[in-house]
Amino acid sequence: MTAQAEASTTIVARRTPWWRKALRSWQLYVLLTPAVAYVLVFKYWPMFGAQIAFRDYNPVDGFTGSPWVGLEHFTRFVESFQFERLMVNTLTVNALGLLVAFPVPIVLALMVNQLAGDRFKKFTQTVLYALSFISVVVVVGMIFLLFSPRSGIVNNAITAFGGDPVFFMGSPEWFRPLYIGSDIWQNAGFSMIVYLAALTAIDPALHEAARVDGANKWQRMWHIDIPGILPVITILFILAIGNLFNLGFEKVLLMQTDLNLPTSEVIQTYVYKTGLQGAQFSYSAAIGLFNSLINLALLLTFNWVARRANKTSLW
């Protein structure tokens, strides 16, 4: 009788309409509604305007009334003399940033996790991630002041040792180091929090057993901590690859000067200049869509590779 009752209960549960199940947990759906509305209105609805990338858009005729030109704007961008420079600049800055900046929060998290004393550990965390609350405008202003060829503290130190002042913000070769270095200084502490949270999920019994076996801090870090946060590292790395052709538009634009444009002109700033300043709406929309498709392809590719390599992926 018990088996029959369980079977009948299972059949009834399977036949229960979805709306009845939703009514049982209506409070959760009410809480979910604002988030869903936000995604639909601000993420999916604007995709309707992406069609101007395939049209010769003008505000009078609107989205659907403008003439259809197909891939003309995409072809124009790929064949333009700006294409190679924009792709190289965008990829170089992001790739160097990924290689240099991505491991820094991991190292910081491992080091902070080994600190003795809760007060000192909390103080160190606060000092490291407080920098992320500084505005990008303020950070770029600090860069201009610190590296000024006349009054900057860096050039003052160079001249004090007998060197010649360097116009850092006017030198194309210095744009990438300054951008990546300031990004690490500002954002590494905030990114560290994710890895610290992952480290707290590691079973303390593993460390206790390793101590009993005579393992030192470096051995426990290498054989327990790093493998324990490896899935989180993989997920964040996949997401970073998905943004390989995306840069912080505001910071790049603020750091740009007429002299460093050969290395500082990236896809995002070029879209801004051609779209808003040059009023070439369809052309700039095509460039932005092209950039998004590349990021999507990279995300799907590396997600597939990660799933095949270590069974950890976004989906």
UniProtKB/TrEMBL annotation:
<feature type="transmembrane region" description="Helical">
    <location>
        <begin position="281"/>
        <end position="306"/>
    </location>
</feature>
<dbReference type="Pfam" id="PF00528">
    <property type="entry name" value="BPD_transp_1"/>
</dbReference>
<dbReference type="InterPro" id="IPR000515">
    <property type="entry name" value="MetI-like"/>
</dbReference>
<keyword id="KW-0472">Membrane</keyword>
<feature type="transmembrane region" description="Helical">
    <location>
        <begin position="184"/>
        <end position="206"/>
    </location>
</feature>
<dbReference type="InterPro" id="IPR050809">
    <property type="entry name" value="UgpAE/MalFG_permease"/>
</dbReference>
<feature type="domain" description="ABC transmembrane type-1">
    <location>
        <begin position="87"/>
        <end position="302"/>
    </location>
</feature>
<feature type="transmembrane region" description="Helical">
    <location>
        <begin position="28"/>
        <end position="45"/>
    </location>
</feature>
<feature type="transmembrane region" description="Helical">
    <location>
        <begin position="226"/>
        <end position="245"/>
    </location>
</feature>
<dbReference type="InterPro" id="IPR035906">
    <property type="entry name" value="MetI-like_sf"/>
</dbReference>
<keyword id="KW-0812">Transmembrane</keyword>
<comment type="similarity">
    <text>Belongs to the binding-protein-dependent transport system permease family.</text>
</comment>
<feature type="transmembrane region" description="Helical">
    <location>
        <begin position="127"/>
        <end position="147"/>
    </location>
</feature>
<keyword id="KW-1133">Transmembrane helix</keyword>
<keyword id="KW-0813">Transport</keyword>
<feature type="transmembrane region" description="Helical">
    <location>
        <begin position="95"/>
        <end position="115"/>
    </location>
</feature>
<protein>
    <submittedName>
        <fullName>ABC transporter permease subunit</fullName>
    </submittedName>
</protein>
<keyword id="KW-1003">Cell membrane</keyword>
